[in-house]
Amino acid sequence: MKRIIIFSLIFGSVAAKAQDARKFSFSEAITFAEQNNTTYKNAQLDVNIAKETVKQTTSYGLPQVSASAGYQQYLTIPGNWVNNFTKVPGSSAPDYIFIRFQQEFASSANLSVSQLLFDGTYFVGLQATKAFMGMSELLKAKSLKDLQLNVAKAYVTAVSTQKNLTVIEANIALLEKSAYEVKEMNKEGFVESLDVDRLNFTLSNLYLQREKLQNAIIITKNALKIHLALPMTTELELTDDLEQLETYLNVSGLDMNTFNASQRIEHRILDQSITLGQLDNKRYKAAALPSLVGFYQYQKSTLRSEFNFFQSNLTPNNEWVPSSMYGLNLRVPIFAGGMTRSKLAETNIKIEKAKNDMANFDRFAEFEYMNAKNGYSVNMKQAENQKANLALAQRIYEKASLKYKEGVGSALEMMQAETELRTANNNYMNALYDLVISKIELQHATGTPIK
Asked: What's the whole-model pTM score?
């Protein structure tokens, strides 16, 4: 029974870990983030809010229908003192009598309909809601673009760190083998103990580097999990390596000779903000125009001396008395204390500011594009050179290892070849990482979606 319980616990733990493990290629990670990232979800919800705002603004110009009903009962019925017109001269009757003209119970029902016939601010508002809807869509697109960029960089960083760890572990395995061989040769007296110490010192440094990289992998993967909206306990397996990403991220189709800042989503957002400012300006001007509303109202009311609202066959004085009317309400603004003029001046300043922001962004976008373009060109050459250097270092190491095994080479020569091979491998991985990042930044700078 104990064995069964232990087996169940172990199996359950393994199954739970298997459920938490997730595999992602580069494109799968971006797609998953688009579906689950909460920041992007909020951007989508903002679009839905904008849609409801459009509906609310439109509703102001549609017929407005309302109904109301009222009931009241006087606890003390009001009245007035009046001259006693029934008094006979010379009699003892009072000169004034108190008369209550109001009934104790009253009830009314009212139905009213109104329709906006003209209001300049309403029609400008309809245009503004469409522009506001467009702004929400643009902000959603920018949120998506930022998400793609963040996921791409986080994925590449995690993959690069994982690749560096793989290289370090391969170097450790290679150096451990060499250290064992040199140690055995030292026992036979063929090499000095100094050579053994040098190898052990190098191995110790590699062990420290491996530990740092193992911690760095956890950090970089956790950063990716944040963008993917995954729990920190999830085990991530990234299936694409740097070589695959360098091939996958193809920028050959980009026009490197011309640049247009209007392709960037930020430029379109600033342009839309100028449009909204101009509509705001137009709205304040329209507020100085008259507004006209038509209305119709129908009402029934009754006064009762007793509570008999639910009885039938009552006398005519208990009947509901109808009334109805229609008309127009005209509102003409005359003087607002200078507020309209001040608001117009404020919107003009904001429009001017938005234009300055756009001009500034266009300059920055071109600067960013030139840097990305030059960076890509330099990193591509660096990657090609480092790849050639790695192949050369590999051949040198193989020859040095062969010479050492045949007894015609020194341990120092072999250790130097191993060091050069590790350095060349690290340099190539770093150059490849820089190249992949520069491709991502070039796509971002040109406004191209990262997929």
From this structure: 0.79
